[in-house]
């Protein structure tokens, strides 16, 4: 279960590492103040000597992932349509020709039956 949670974190938010004013790698902490910033991540000096502080800003937010997904879906639809057009050019369909032939045969059959019926009524 821990691996799954860890995998989820790897696929989630990512932050850029930075150094504090002392040159040390900044620590990431969670705000515990009871205000609108509660549970928000921030970076600070690991030794608290230089008073470095900045809010963690994700490199990609979940919303931007959703936007990327939407854009990919739209591009996929365009590519599918282009593929269909190319396929139709490479393998032209005989369906329209077959339909014309079938309609012609149907009309011929209709007029033949009509002619037979008319000749029978005249007798």
UniProtKB/TrEMBL annotation:
It comes from the Eukaryota. The keyword Zinc-finger applies. The chain crosses the membrane at residues 104-122. Residues 20-59 form the GRF-type domain. Keywords: Membrane, Metal-binding, Transmembrane, Transmembrane helix, Zinc, Zinc-finger. GO terms for molecular function: zinc ion binding. This is GRF-type domain-containing protein.
